[in-house]
Design brief:
Low-confidence stretches: none
Order of helices and strands: HHHHEHEHHEEHEEEH
Strand order of the largest sheet: 1-4-3-5-6-7-2
Shape: elongated
Strand content: 5-15%
Structural class: alpha+beta
Number of helices: 9
Helix content: 40-55%
Radius of gyration: 20 Å
Mean pLDDT: 92
Distance between the termini: 37 Å
Length: about 220
């Protein structure tokens, strides 16, 4: 199962880069979806490679099964906005983060030296207030926000679907911000969650006032 999971995860990233682009025709869209399975893959294990190629074949058959007339009368549930950033766009966002927040791939408290007020707590103190913090971000953010991770899989997403990333589930140190760069959240593999930006900090302090003694305390 694991080789198949890797194939579908890689294809999903290729598809996510197609979001928001206009297509000339149904066949053109179909061709681009088929091409999502043509990513480079240097698999040294022959058995795994055979399994991966089989999963790619099944994906292509699935895409080829779509009929334009049939889809015209089909209702599908709309997914939340999620687009993988291209290399140039990702580099532009990271440059701005470096200028304003000293972000170089890691951030407070392990790396970086934020220009503005910032604080962190151990994740276990944040988890009980996850819903409230998600609501705060939705109230102060633009309609789209970014997730920037240590592996370069950077995304633009709908803030309506915002949730604080958990390293345990996403498997990478992840930074969240929007196009204003006025607020920032950083989740580390050391089980810390850091916050930056005056407006966000003031609301976090108000929400977690009973945990003030835990602010900026490494456990």
């Amino acid at each position: 199962m694991f080789p198949r999971y890797l194939v579908l995860a890689a294809i999903s990233k290729e598809i996510d880069m197609l979001v928001g682009q206009k297509r000339k025709s149904f066949s053109n869209c179909k061709y681009e979806l088929l091409a999502a399975a043509d990513y480079s893959d240097d698999e040294p294990n022959e058995k795994c490679q055979v399994t991966k190629e089989d999963e790619k074949r099944k994906y292509r058959e699935f895409i080829l099964s779509f009929d334009e007339n049939g889809l015209a009368n089909t209702t599908v549930k709309q997914l939340g906005f999620r687009r993988k950033l291209g290399k140039n766009e990702s580099e532009k966002i990271r440059k701005k983060l470096a200028e304003k927040w000293n972000y170089d791939g890691s951030w407070y408290p392990i790396g970086g030296n934020p220009h503005e007020e910032a604080l962190y707590l151990m994740e276990k103190y944040i988890t009980p207030f996850e819903k409230e913090i998600n609501d705060i971000i939705r109230s102060i953010s633009l309609s789209r926000y970014y997730t920037i991770d240590e592996f370069g899989d950077d995304y633009k997403r709908s803030v309506a679907d915002f949730t604080i990333p958990s390293y345990k589930y996403v498997g990478s140190e992840t930074l969240c911000c929007d196009d204003t760069f006025d607020w920032i959240i950083y989740v580390s593999h050391e089980s810390t969650i850091s916050f930056g930006g005056d407006r966000l900090i003031s609301q976090i302090k108000g929400l977690l006032k009973d945990y003030e003694s835990r602010f900026d305390v490494w456990e």
